[in-house]
Give the backbone structure.
Amino acid sequence: MPLTDQDLEHLERLARVKLSGESREKLRGQLARIIEFVKQLQGIDTAGMEPRARAAGLKPPLRGDETKPCLPREEVLAASPDNRKGYFAVPPVIEADEL
Amino acid sequence: MRDLVQYSIEGLGDIYRAREATVREVVQAYLDTIEAREPRIKAFLQVFAERALEEASELDAKGHDGRPLFGIPVAIKDNLCTRGIPTTCSSKILAGYRPPYDATVVERLRAAGAVIIGKTNLDEFAMGSSCENSAFQITHNPWNEAYAPGGSSGGSAAAVAADMALASLGSDTGGSIRQPASLCGVVGLKGTYGRVSRYGLVAFASSLDQIGPFARDVRDCALVMEAIAGHDVRDATTIPAGAPDLRGGLERGFKGMRVAVSADLETWEMDVSVKEVAARTVDELIRDSVPVTRVALPGMETSIAAYYILANAEASSNLARYDGVRYGLRSSSASLAAMYDETRGEGFGDEVKRRILLGTYVLSSGYYDAYYAKAQQVKALICAQFEELFKSCDLILLPTSPTPAFKLGERLEDPIAMYLSDIFTTPANIAGLPAISVPAELSPEGLPIGMQLVAGWGEEEKLMRGAFGLERMYRFREQHVLGPKAGRGRHGDR
């Protein structure tokens, strides 16, 4: 079953990944084949099985809500492409033509 | 000059204690090997020559203090965070990224006295089975450079195979330690899910990822695992117990254990040389009076599809953080949304994009139940089947990889052919079970073939005993060494 261009655009929007050029077409074909491949799962009888997230039954442990030391702000900001006055700096959230 | 790279971890410990060599001399010997072989293998993204020698000198000044990995040169897969040192996951989107913290396993290796000799190449974000998806370089199989080392931990496997590190760390989500171990002729171990802390491992699929060691033999592998395993408050999925003793019972091998093998292995598509190794192994076990039963192995038909749904769904979520805001690549754009799209479009390779998009698809509205929820039901089924099987056996024996190493470039155009490399390894990830690959024989073409053992939940001790039994049976290292092609000539006997 083919993956339409609209399907692919929808996924690109959800995943916030821009595909371009010939890799876009190639990916579309490959994705369609992979989806067909994983579809085989639907033929498996899983009657009575509860969906399982964790393999073992271990419950995640909780701890008290106490503040603990964390990474110093300067160290974290040091890795960023742009930061100002202690904040991460990014382009405008709303594009000019959306206003 | 003695060949200092020939010694095992315990062997080096003896040498250090007897002051027959310094850590600096050993590290230099490994750096010399890297210099000779690395240009053709390209296992490393970074080699820490100066830093490693400095650390070696510091260790020499203290003298051997009994720590289990004192002076042992170790390589680390580049998806493990090393403070202040570039950690790229072989991706353009993290080129030059310096984490502000060490992974727990890195801390534990250092605490055990190890010298970190470099960061190794991987498939980008650990997504792949050949190391060909690295954004920076291709790693070559030390046994034949025209062939892939396997993946995603291909660099770590190749480094140990070519004596460029005495041990290394990789990560295994669908087979990424075991498969390259098999293709490179080394031991590769993935413990029970939760055995090793994932704090500082760049996440691919959080419910499947596990860090584990590569080593030349089972005893060395056990030693490294003991050093890194154990509960960590910083990873809430870790098992609340210390590292198990994995060496005490090794010599017993298969004694007292029952082994299960596939009843219909011949029906699976795999190289004839792999089938023959599997058959010979079973015959040998039977000759040694090890009880062997033939059963339908869980997950053989179902786990690959379930894996590619669950892993990619989790990956699509985990890789959402690479958006150009806080670290890594940022494409210059007029708006925030465009910045996300372009940064991720530019920064991710094709395989990563494939997996993110597939993950997005199976989680999206209208498809979630048919794919993701269904895959979780299949996971429950596979777990239940393994639990049932382990009531009547202690270990499962099967091949690690359906083929020996394949030629570089051979599987690049067909993602599904690449995915099928993981057909024997994904069941253990889905069920969270410990599994190991042990080098068995060389194919007629001179490429390594490994055999895999899987044990019940938490049963690494049994797993290692069985692995030792296999190692003793195969005598792989006594019979096969890398030849002159690897650049340094034959080793002496160990």
Q: What stands out?
A: The beta strands of chain A are 83-84, 87-88. Chain A touches chain B through 55 residues (CB under 8 Å). The mean pLDDT of chain A is 87.
